[in-house]
């Protein structure tokens, strides 16, 4: 019984770490995109998103998450969550006309 609790906590901690990193990376990428690109049509705004997605696996390793167990589904989750937060944040920044 106690090993199940430990496994559940470790899995929960892993999920929270991955979720937190993906969402914060997406928001940070949107802020950088807002600084680099002046309009939504500027393709340079995509580079921070690509960089955030690529850098996440090494960052997750540094945070103690075993990324060797990641399958296609996990990698797609990381990319999708990062893209989603980047898209929403950058859209808000572009719509409001905020400048950083």
TrEMBL record:
Keyword terms of this UniProt record: Membrane, Transmembrane, Transmembrane helix
Transmembrane segments: 16-38, 44-64, 76-98
Name of this chain's protein: Uncharacterized protein
Organism lineage string: Archaea, Methanobacteriati, Methanobacteriota, Stenosarchaea group, Halobacteria
């Amino acid at each position: 019984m106690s090993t199940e609790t430990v496994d559940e906590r470790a899995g929960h901690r892993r999920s929270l770490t991955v979720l937190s990193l993906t969402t914060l990376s997406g928001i940070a990428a949107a802020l950088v995109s807002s600084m680099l690109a002046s309009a939504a049509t500027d393709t340079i705004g995509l580079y921070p998103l690509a960089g955030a997605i690529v850098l996440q696996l090494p960052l997750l390793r540094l945070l103690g998450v075993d990324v060797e167990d990641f399958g296609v589904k996990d990698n797609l989750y990381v990319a999708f969550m990062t893209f989603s937060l980047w898209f929403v944040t950058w859209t808000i920044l572009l719509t409001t006309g905020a400048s950083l």
